[in-house]
Specification:
Layout: E1 3-4, E2 6-9, H1 13-28, E3 37-40, H2 79-85, H3 89-93, H4 101-114, E4 124-132, E5 138-146, E6 153-158, E7 160-163, E8 168-169, H5 173-176, E9 183-185, H6 189-200, E10 205-209, H7 213-225, E11 230-234, H8 255-263, H9 266-276, H10 286-302, E12 307-310, E13 313-321, E14 324-331, E15 337-342, E16 344-347, E17 351-352, E18 382-383, E19 392-395, H11 400-403, H12 414-435
Parallel strand pairs: 1-6, 2-3, 2-7, 7-19, 9-16, 10-11, 10-16, 11-12
Antiparallel strand pairs: 4-5, 5-6, 8-17, 13-14, 14-15, 18-19
Helix pairs in contact: 1-12, 7-10
The structure holds flavin-adenine dinucleotide (FAD).
Residues 9-15, 40-43, 48-49, 52, 59-61, 123-125, 164-166, 214, 397, 409-412 line the site of flavin-adenine dinucleotide.
Length: 442
């Protein structure tokens, strides 16, 4: 079986940005040996956040912070090239920099299609296993994946592996048992909604849990799309907040800040991350905050009374019965008990980072750990390994805990992160090929 230079798990923005860095480098060095990469993606396409591309939503970052421009403004993978190729360059310049989520999702898919090495879709990576040579040294990883359509198992060998599998939906404990067609996370929003509408029509009662941008967008979407729907919004604090949009605090997304955060130790680093969170999590952007407040005001003005924005309310119990869901609630400060009945409960409860990527479990004995027992990850996003393992294992977009706010769920450093991973990958590969040229093909 062929041993790839690198096997990349996940072909969303982080995986595509890395592929762009790899191919740009190969293009710039035509005489050199090109990198041999395999890209495995669980989904059928590289569509970006496909279940949450709602009409009227836009991106939260500057469009120049795309998959390639901050690394190399001449890259063929940049957003401006996408605009040129799609014939929208001049019309775009009249929009004042506004980019809808729909257009960004198209751009991400376009960029994925520009990668010469075709990605393998319908490949869910299950395990990354060490393959020991006869001298006991692990120089290769076996990446085991499954086709979600038929369960068929596939294997790829790589000298290096990049996990670019993103964050996973966070489901609070109280909702876990009742997940299904009536209680679901926002990451499943559009398909679940379409199924629900087909089954039950327009006149539905919703409970939207959470106080972040996704909750705001979903409430506005429901209010606009379903004129007969009744919507309950539940937030645990004093009401929807706005992102911290100050110029200075948003320098948290500059690569130099990643250097700074990476240099901090445990508690100090956690504190720095906690401060930066207000720039990106659990809050609304000004457009959505304004639109939501106007919608609530209009609702009161007209006496329509279908938009109920509950603050300081937490859910203590969930009971799904027949076609409905009953939420038992608790007022956070007074302790007053109550209940809300809904036809569907939408969990806008965010995402979490895996503490240890499950698929890396077979490699656990070959990895190094810090004093807190967490993976020892370099500034270049490589998990440090023991001496008798030469495989480069990269965590791309899943080390917010280590590198800070800009390194995971943001486009701000997507290209810079790809460049850092790519440079380290090339150096690792050069060492591997020099010490073991025979492993080129097994
Ligand atoms: C609704 C929404 C809007 C957002 N808007 C913005 C924005 O405007 N600006 C911004 O900077 N950030 C935004 N974000 C943050 C978002 O996380 C990043 O934009 C970006 O998607 C991160 O890219 P990623 O490739 O690291 O992770 P993901 O986008 O999560 O991509 C991971 C990929 O890996 C695949 N995958 C997962 N597990 C496996 C597996 N086991 N095997 C194979 N493939 C796998 C997934 O299918 C996916 O394609 C938004 C997030 C959400 C949820």
């Amino acid at each position: 079986m062929q041993i790839h230079d690198v096997v990349v798990a996940g072909f969303g923005p982080s995986g595509i940005a890395l592929a762009a860095a790899i191919e740009d480098h190969d293009d710039a060095h035509p005489g050199a040996r090109p990198a041999d990469a395999a890209y495995l993606e669980r989904a059928a396409t590289s569509a970006w956040q496909p279940n949450q591309v709602l009409p009227g939503t836009d991106i939260q970052h500057h469009f120049l912070r795309d998959l390639a421009t901050p690394r190399d403004p001449r890259s063929r993978f940049g957003f401006t090239n996408f605009l040129l190729q799609s014939g929208r360059f001049y019309p775009f310049t009249l929009l004042g920099g506004y980019v809808s989520r729909l257009e960004w999702s198209e751009y991400v898919q376009w960029a994925a299609a520009q990668v010469r090495q075709p990605a393998e879709y319908h490949r869910e990576v299950l395990r990354v296993e060490p393959v020991a040579d006869s001298d006991g040294t692990v120089r290769t990883a076996r990446v085991v994946s499954r086709d979600p359509r038929d369960g068929a198992v596939h294997e790829h060998l790589g000298r290096n592996v990049v996990l670019a599998t993103g964050h996973v939906p966070y489901i609070p404990e109280v909702f876990r048992e009742d997940l299904g067609e009536r209680v679901f996370h926002a990451s499943e929003f559009l398909p679940r909604m379409n199924a629900l509408r087909e089954k039950t029509g327009q006149s539905l009662r919703f409970a939207v849990i959470g106080g972040g941008q996704t909750a705001g967008e979903i409430i506005l979407y429901l209010a606009g799309e379903l004129p007969d729907a009744r919507i309950h919004s539940l937030v645990r604090h004093g009401g929807f907040k706005m992102y911290e949009l100050g110029h200075f605090s948003n320098e948290a997304y500059f690569p130099t800040e990643t250097d700074y955060v990476y240099g901090l130790e445990g508690p100090a680093r956690e504190q720095a991350l906690a401060h930066a969170r207000a720039t990106n999590y659990a809050a609304l952007d000004p457009d959505v905050s304004t639109a939501l407040y106007q919608a609530a005001y209009q609702d009161r003005l007209t006496g329509t009374n279908r938009l109920h924005l509950h603050r300081r309310l937490e859910v203590t119990d969930v009971a799904v019965a027949g076609d409905g869901v009953r939420l038992t609630t608790n007022e956070v400060y007074t302790g007053e008990a109550g209940s809300i009945d809904a036809d569907a409960v939408i969990l806008c409860t965010g995402y979490e980072e895996p503490k240890f990527p499950e698929s890396l479990q077979p490699f656990a004995p070959y990895l190094s750990y810090d004093t807190d027992g967490r993976l020892d990850v370099t500034r270049e996003y490589r998990a440090r390994t023991v001496d008798h393992c030469t495989v480069g294992l990269y965590l791309d977009g899943i080390t917010e805990w280590r590198h800070g706010i800009a390194s995971a769920t943001s486009f701000s450093q997507m290209a810079a992160k790809a460049e850092t991973v790519h440079n380290d990958l090339r150096a690792t590969l050069a060492r591997q090929l020099q010490s073991h040229p025979a492993t080129l093909v097994s």
